[in-house]
Structure formats: C-alpha cells, structure tokens
Amino acid sequence: QQFMVRNDQVGGAAGCPDGLWNMVYSGTVGAPAPVFSGQCEQNTVLAKSPVSQEKPFLYTDAKGKFQVFVPSVQKNTVGTSWSSGHEAGHSIPISDFFVANPSTSVLSITLALALGKNLILTPGVYNLNQSIIVSRPDTVVLGLGDATVVPQRGNAAMIVLPDNGVSVSGLLIDAGKVNSPVLLSLGTRGFSGILGGLFGNSSHDPDLVSDVFFRIGGAATTSTSATTSLIDNADGSILDDVWAWRADHGNAVGWTVNKADTGVVVNADNVTAYGLAVEHYQKNEVVWSGNGGTDVFFQNELPYDPPSQSVWNASRTQLGYPAFVVSPSVKTFNGYGMGSYVVFNQTTATLYDDMAFQAPKRQGVQFSNIFTIWITGSGGFNSVINGTGGADNSVTPASQAPIDVVSYP
Description:
- It is a single chain.
- The protein is globular and about 65 Å long.
- It has three helices and 33 strands.
- The protein has helices at residues 106-114, 191-194, 196-199, and strands spanning 2-6, 22-26, 35-36, 42-46, 49-52, 57-60, 66-71, 74-77, 89-93, 97-100, 118-121, 125-128, 132-134, 140-151, 158-160, 167-174, 180-186, 208-216, 224-232, 238-246, 258-259, 262-266, 272-279, 286-288, 293-301, 324-326, 333-343, 351-353, 357-358, 365-376, 379-381, 392-393, 403-408.
- Strands 10, 11, 12, 14, 16, 18, 20, 23, 25, 27, 30 and 33 form a twelve-stranded mixed beta sheet that branches.
C-alpha cells in the first residue's frame, strides 16, 4: 500500500507497475519516474534528501573490540552514505557506554548519563518508575533488539533536554496503565538559541530520533493511555522512521480502554521527518507548529472506533479531526507523499471527517502529492485538504482508489 525509500539504490519497482497508493523515494538512485495519477501510479520522488543522518550502530573493530559508530549528518544527498567504503562519522568505544538491562534502576541510568556516559539498552522490557533523563548534548541512546520501555507512574519514558546532537534509536515505547502526558519529550524550545555558545548549533548537530516506535494498547492486558506520544521541541531535529500507534487490535483495545489524543507534536523549527506513520489516535494524529518543517512521507489511518460523530468532532462546526494539522501561525512547511485512510468499524455510527489535512492557505506552506483513501465503514472524508479535493466516503466511494491533490495551494 505504501513504502518509503531514502538514500538507497534500487533496481526497479515491483507492483502494478510501481506499487499501490503511496511510494515515496528520497535521494534514491534508480527511483521510478515521478507520477501521481492513479491507484498504481503514485510515485513521489525527491531528487535529494535535504538533511539526514543514519542511526548509530554497534560493531567490532579489527582487534575484536566493541565500538559504536555514529554517522555524520548529511545534506542534499543522493544514494547511500557508505557505498564508497568510507562513511563519514566517528566511533565511540564501548567503555564510554553505560550498558543497561531491565533490572537496572532508572536512577543509575540517569546518573551515568549525567556523568558523561552514553547508553545502550539491551533487549528486554524496562518498567520505568521515573523518566530517563538525557542531560548532555551529543549523547547516544541505542536500543538493541527493540528494547521496550514502559512508564509506570504517569511519567515520560524519556526526557531529552539539549537539542544538540542527541541520538535516540532502536526503541519501542509503550504506554503504561497510568496516563502519561508525553512518552518521549525531545529538546527544549529555544534552548540551543539561548545557550548556543555552550551547546553548539543544532542545524549542524541536530537531535536524531530513528527507528523509534510508540504503542498505546495491544500488548498489556490492562488499560493504557498517553496523551501525546512524541513532543519535538528540538530545532533542526531529524525524525526518521517513527511509527506512533494507538492499537486497533490486540489486548485491551477500545475507545475508553487505550486512550491517546495525539501521536506527534512538532513545536520546533526546521524539523525534517522521513517515513512518518501515525495511526488511530483519538484527536489530531499530528500537529505541526514549527516553521521551516519538512515531512517526506506520511501514512495514517484514522481511529477505527469512535462510538459517535459527536465525540469525535474538532469543533461545533467541523466534523471529525484532521489527521495532519499545520498550525495557523506556521509560515513555511513542505509535505511530500502524504496519505490518510478510513477504516470505520463501528456498525452503529456514521462518521465523517471534513478534511484529512488542515493548514493555513499561504504560498510558504506547500503540499505535494497528498491523498485520501476510503477503505470501509459508514462515512469517510469530505475533502482532502481545507475543503479541496473530492469527497471519499461510503456515499461516493472511489473503489479504494486514491483521491489525489497533486499540489496545494
């Protein structure tokens, strides 16, 4: 249905002929021709990735010693960063890491981070009675085996304070049984600007969140909740392969059981996101309030289970919640290859969403290749963005074909 390829080399696309609803290629050698005109011709192609960074990885050196390699930030790139055999970046010896396991206390982890260590979370489930605090710039937090962290007392799982050079990757963050206002808080708005001389320039040394997934419900057998999964206050940060999921199946799933308002909130300026997937939240799935932002690929399914239209309206005059909202104050934003889908499974409710995307209508706020898909259920979309784009619902279904807006405004 959808796929995102960044900084790679491909030998040809498969499918009918090039995939289905939303194939997005960024800085990819061999990408198919850009075309956005039908169910099996939906290719969004960016010639270069504007800014990117591969996540750190564990390796053994020539002497058999463990090290962690931290790739450098890349700008306006095509193809892989390592094909020459000499990837830009630096190595950190394993001795500079605090290696934790699920029995390690949170206080020990936070203290080690404050004293200069980086962090490796080995595989397992970490039940956190307080937040892990990342207090120093350029700290590497690396989860192995999708290390799973679960707040227990309504705390955040992790709070990252400096918005300079911190890398968080390889984590699954579960909501706990006590509501957390936020699961991962990244950066402090304006922090690097105020203390730039001390912490450096975030545009050259951005925070990175890579391969981090959020889950509200589906695993635990009791009710879980988190108001917002990720809040990004770090100017210039990179979000790469973030999936935020309010569970639609599994254990403890239901409108009043696994509760979550919003998946991702971006307050910072100049944030770049790749491969962003946010699904089934009960209000706006994404709220983007920072200037200069770029989102390359967005996949969304609206919540399956609102019990009635009245409990799922953005206002008295607006039916449903848009999946992706760019705040009215935003002057500049670019979105590429973004789709929202409807699967409503409540047989007693007819549900409409006035628009999948909502944004200020100004030239600085640009969308390229956005669409809706009605899959099943009574109701659906009334428009793609701000009333533009055809209706896509059970009254006028498009046979599960996309309703496209190639450019907006």
